[in-house]
Amino acid sequence: MITSNKNFAIETKNLNLWYGTFQALFDVNLQIKEGQITSLIGPSGCGKSTLLRSINRINERLGYVRIDGDIEVFNKNVYDADVALVQLRKQVGMVFQRPNPLPGSIRENVLYGHKLHKPGKITRHQQDEIVEKALSQVLLWDKVKDHLNRPASGLSLEEQQKLCIARLLPVQPKILLMDEPCSALDPAGTAAVEELIWELRGEYTILIVTHNMAQARRASEECIFMLMGEVVEHSLTSELFVTPQSTKTADYIEGRYG
Amino acid sequence: MNSEMFIESDLNRTNKRTQALYRTLFIIMTLLLILPVVIILGTLVYKGGGIISIDFLFTDPINGMTEGGIFPALVGTLWLVSVALLISVPLGVAAAIYLSEYAADNWFTRIINLAIINLAGVPSIVHALFGVGAFVIFFGFGTSILAASLTLAIMTLPVVIVSTRESLQSVPYAFREACWNMGATRWQTIRRVVLPNAVSGILTGIILEVSRTAGETAPIMFTGAAFFLPYLPQGVFDQTMALSLHLFVVATQVPNVPDALPYGVALVLIGLVLLMNSISIAFRMHLRGKKKW
Ligand SMILES: Nc1ncnc2c1ncn2[C@@H]1O[C@H](COP(=O)(O)OP(=O)(O)O)[C@@H](O)[C@H]1O
Ligand SMILES: [Mg+2]
To answer: Which single residue of A72, B75, B111, B131 could bond A11 by disulfide (Cβ 3.0 to 4.6 Å)?
Structure first.
């Protein structure tokens, strides 16, 4: 790339979004830097999930969603006619609140995405490599390497969530969107998954929605605060929590919105 | 005060009695429900069991259907059921996949749903007359296995569609979401995740259909089943005997039939249905055992 500055992985320009007649996002202008972890905080219902889900265009399925403005991923408007949804979702992986491993073994889960995007035979050995690499990246390999053929649903929630992240990696996405990935986990699981997310920094651009302010503080480099469908503040995490620019942000991080 | 905290109160006792009463009531209702099944099966075995033999199953009826076996009817029923399945299963499953996985919730889909519900409510004699008009006469299939099976297929289609759709819907939405978010197309999602996990439920629907198809009389009576035809059908354009119609005939239409004969025919018909049901239930349990969530 040309400039030495960080590039933007995701950029939204005057993004407005309606569910039917209800407007959920108002003039959202965001620039998410490549290779960083950016966290998205705000009270429940403020549009965090909505924003996340419009980036990989999964919201469209609903039929009654209308969007106005631009969403660019690596400087390409994802709503351009020549953007293939399948390719977009390959580049932009998503992790959900509740771990959703697919029915099947741990191994099958990791290989699923790879099979989707690279049809054709690969040797057992190549498969093993993919599985080991992905599971190692999510710090799960040592734990499951001896029972890769067990059903994924038998794992603990924390392990399932890690597997759901691992499942995305073989197709080499550039961006990982995570919607409250730790909210179904206990504190130890949360810490473990946070650690893993921190490890992935640099290699992937990560946009993570969280309810947990301590988590945003610990595990992100930049932080965005949203309120009622609008972005109130976007700054370095270290600044946002210490010297918030807006009184609304201050109120929120001091727990005045719950 | 503290020591009495856990002692049963009068109200507790009344509630307990009421609860016991209702429980008994429900058990009695359930027993009443299986009573007819027991009586029917018992009567059939008692009165018709004696006539069942290898010969009875594998020889033709003779002497004006008062003696001999039921072989052509047995084979005919298998024909009718298989051809009906060949038609209704692909059609019904495809329609269910469309309705469950592709169709948006709009007026068009709602009309289709309404049509399916109404189709399920059409009496079988109406289906029979429709079959005569459409398949026997209009399409010119004549009275044949094809016409009869098509009629049966249409009649049982709603069952297949509704039950298939329900089993597709029972596959958690999170699985689909996971696939889409990895860039799977709808078809890839259906093919690799939804269908494999819905198969056991889909089979149940098909079994239901088999049972119904094998027992129906009205829809095949005018479209393809013959009173008496002491040879086997050679293809789908032939007429055929069928167990259900044969039962009707020997029970009501033919004089001097020995008492045991109709009961024997009924027993074979029920046996056939039960056999198919248990095979598929076994298969379903086998599949469910392999299910990984
Ligand atoms: N599928 C939907 N249909 C209609 N309204 C929705 C839908 N999803 C979310 N909303 C509304 O949009 C707003 C933002 O929701 P969401 O993005 O889920 O918030 P958050 O993730 O911050 O809790 C809420 O008011 C919610 O009620
Ligand atoms: Mg949310």
So the answer is: A72
| Residues B97-141 pLDDT 10s | 999 999 888 889 999 999 998 988 899 899 999 999 999 999 989
CB of B73 closer than 8 Å to CB of B243: yes
Question: Any residues with CB less than 8 A from the CB of B205 and at least 6 apart, and which?
Answer: B92, B159, B160, B162, B163, B164, B167
How far apart CA A29 and CA B170 sit, in angstroms, is: 40
Chain A residues within 8 Å of chain B (Cβ atoms): 56, 58, 61, 63, 85-90, 93-94, 96, 98, 100-105, 112-113, 116-117, 151-153, 164, 167-168, 171
A178 CA to middle of ligand 2, Å?
10
pLDDT at B46: 92
Confidence at residue B1, expressed as pLDDT on a 0 to 100 scale: 58
Contact (Cβ atoms closer than 8 angstroms) between residue A111 and residue A69: no
* Furthest-apart CA atoms within chain A: distance in Å: 58
List domains and CATH numbers for chain A.
8-99+174-253 (3.40.50.300)
- pTM for the model stands at 0.80
Instruction: Tell me what pLDDT residue B207 has.
Output: 82
Classify domain B72-288 by CATH architecture.
Orthogonal Bundle (1.10)
Give the single-character DSSP code of A246: S
**Are residues A179 and A94 in contact, defined by beta-carbon separation less than 8 angstroms?**
yes
Query: Which ipTM did the prediction report?
Result: 0.80
